[in-house]
Write a structure and sequence with these properties.
The chain is an all-alpha fold. It is 68% helix and 0% strand.
Length: 228
């Protein structure tokens, strides 16, 4: 463990809760270990840690991130990806390779979705020349989580969403039986419906999407309609 992380580790150990840890591990299908620190408390501990020790030094950042990612308890991964979220605007172009590594390791929706929309999404907006080569690589990778990222990185783009790219990737994923792929398609369409409802309605109507994708895509619009 990098020495920078030792005070954080000590704070986590001090606030360990075995009952919550058991419940969290069960919720995540037994894939990850936990200290059992719930999100509000974890964020408070992170704030105390950063207030005292600051953000990682630039030349040590990648090592610290990878050390966190290899530690067993999931709270380490949550904290370090949120730390990266504070450093997105200062990231060099090569940071994309670190993000890709995190997407490919200890992959599950709880980290992938944050990385896709808050890290990768910001980075690709800063360095748009990376969009096509990286997202194409992810679409061809055979890795479900990288494909999900190729769909979700534009989640917060609103009017800046590249609809040609998005619709092309959705078409390529039509017929997928993967829950997390079909859920992602519905999610990005639902989010974009808040920007352009007519485009989403037309897209859903004229494409053979999985039922899950359709439900998710129209969920916000259906709710708004029922409120009238």
């Amino acid at each position: 463990m990098h020495e920078y992380l030792i005070p954080l580790s000590q704070a986590f150990e001090k606030n360990r809760n075995e009952q919550f840890a058991f419940q969290m591990k069960k919720y995540m299908k037994g894939q990850f270990e936990y200290f059992g620190i719930k999100s509000p408390e974890r964020k408070a501990l992170k704030k105390e840690f950063l207030d005292q020790y600051g953000l990682p030094d630039k030349d040590q950042l990648e090592k610290i991130v990878k050390d966190c990612w290899h530690l067993p308890q999931r709270e380490y991964q949550y904290v370090i990806m949120e730390v990266l979220g504070r450093l997105t605007k200062k990231a060099a172009i090569s940071r994309i390779d670190l993000y890709e590594s995190l997407l490919e390791n200890k992959s599950w929706w709880d980290t992938v979705d944050y990385i896709a929309s808050n890290l990768v999404g910001v980075h690709l907006k800063m360095y748009p020349d990376l969009i096509k080569p990286y997202t194409e690589k992810w679409m061809d990778s055979g890795n479900m989580w990288l494909k999900r990222t190729a769909i979700l990185f534009q989640l917060k783009y609103k009017k800046e969403t590249d609809l040609v790219l998005l619709s092309g990737y959705i078409h390529r994923l039509q017929g997928s039986k993967e829950f997390f792929i079909n859920k992602a398609i519905g999610w990005i369409l639902r989010e974009y419906s808040k920007t352009d409802r007519d485009w989403v309605i037309h897209f859903v109507k004229n494409n053979e999407l999985a039922n899950l994708s359709k439900r998710e895509a129209l969920k916000w619009l259906d709710r708004k309609s029922s409120e009238k």
